Amino acid sequence: MTETPDITEPATRPARIEWRAATVRDVINETSHAKTLVLEVPGWPGHLAGQHVDVRLTADDGYQAQRSYSIASEPSKPTLAITIERLDDGEVSPYLTDALGVGDRLELRGPIGGYFVWEPDVGGPIFLVAGGSGVVPLMAMLRTRATAPASIRASVAATLLYSSRGWDDVFYRDELAGLTSDRNVRVIHTLTRSQPPGWTGFTRRIDADMLAETAPDPSLEPHIYVCGPTALVESTAQTLVDLGHDPSRVKTERFGPTG
Amino acid sequence: MADEPIISRGFRGRRAPVERASRIPPGQYEERGFPVLSAGPTPRTPLAKWDFTLRGVDGASATWTWDEFQALPHETITRDIHCVTKWSKLDTVWEGISVDTLIAEAAKRGVSTAPFLVAFSDGDYTTNMPLDDVVGGKAWVVFGYDGKPLHPEHGGPARLLVPHLYFWKSAKWVRGIQFTAHNEPGFWEVNGYHDRGDPWREQRYQGDP
Asked: ipTM of the assembly?
């Protein structure tokens, strides 16, 4: 451990992550219950794939509510995208998905989080495991990779294992399909509740056999990112360790969607 | 940047009843469940291999096995907890041993405190605090939650409980405390989170007041 100055020494304090005014430039329907807000954020300092923002809403009497949302867009994009799953009984998400339109403004601050992140310097292979809306920060990683120089794309193999209830619950469906035109990218879906006619893919919850079949071999030392509901993340992370992956290379982010 | 808050037309929000609202810090909302957040796989240390250590700046240390630890005086603690990811949970009930007790016991074995400390855990998690935040009935090492053994997802077999700070300070899977002469940022603190983390001052991130 290195010696650092006391908390009380003001010169060591980094700049505050300021609240910024963001303007909605586009709203994209991802599924019947999830939308992407494409935001213009003047002064945005840049971010890494995997980081999130805090969003703050203020009612006309001054009451405020905050929630955290993962960033879906790659850092090189001039706009910032967040994808929000609507919780019917949520406090904030129904407002973001139903009430906000192009031209509306909201406050956010970020980027936040320095651990569950991937950038090209980290290298590969990368193995991404998503449950439901947990795909959002992993999409930022895939988009970052897809827009990186060809040498990065050639050296970083990427696999996404993505668990959804049904085909219509899959976020970014067409874009994910498009990403696989790169032979170094694999996208594997499992649809746990309902499947479209002719579905030949996985139909069960993520388990040890599925992870053994889809994950890069531990000897390749993949960087693993798991994001989704607690039960999925707990069992996936434990199984990956049991399969021989170093726990320090298994990064997790657990969330129920936040209301 | 945003000097005046932007009013969200039509946003009402869901306000807690007054008697509960006064217990919810700024930017937080009340959660009735118990969400789980951690950065990696859940470590699993068998009780037979578990121990807990207090270590001074000079290296002097006191270590308890699980059974020795259980023999120390237990307390039942009912407190509100506040996670930096915005949820707060009221009236959580824990069972554990006060850090004051551990410090007093360790003192008998020649272990001195220092102005700061780093709590360390299985899975290489660490978090830092000033000594003042863990003495005087403000912090515990807990192994029981809601009348049952603490589940591994929530930090079992034992975690730190420092309920007056954001909950990442309540290190899961805790195995000991290293006293330090200076403030030494821990895992989340070097990844952008605040050194102190007082929810009532909304000290979420590095740079917050």
From this structure: 0.90
Q: Does residue B46 surpass a pLDDT of 50?
A: yes
Core vs surface per residue B176-202: b (16+ CB within 10 A) or e: bbbbbebbbbbbbbebbbbbbbbbeeb
Q: Determine the CATH number of domain B27-32+47-116+124-175.
A: 3.90.420.10
Domain shared by A156 and A241, yes or no:
yes
Residue A11 forms contact with B (CB below 8 Å): no
Residue type, A67: R
How, if at all, do strands A158-164 and A126-131 pair? parallel
Contact B184 A106 (CB under 8 A): no
List the single residue in B26, B28, B36 with the smallest CB-CB distance to A230: B36
User: How many angstroms away from the CA of A128 is the closest CA of chain B?
Assistant: 14
Q: Do B39 and A116 touch (CB under 8 A)?
A: yes
Distance CA B54, CA B178 (A): 6
Average pLDDT, chain A: 93
Please compute the mean of the pLDDT values over residues A251-256 and round it to a whole number.
80
Specify whether the CB–CB gap between B158 and B142 falls below 8 A. yes
For residue A11, is pLDDT > 70?
no
Q: What is the pTM of this model?
A: 0.92
Domain span including residue A142: 120-254
Write out pLDDT tens, residues A211-242. 999 999 999 999 999 999 989 999 999 999 99
User: Distance between CA atoms of B187 and B126, rounded to whole angstroms?
Assistant: 5
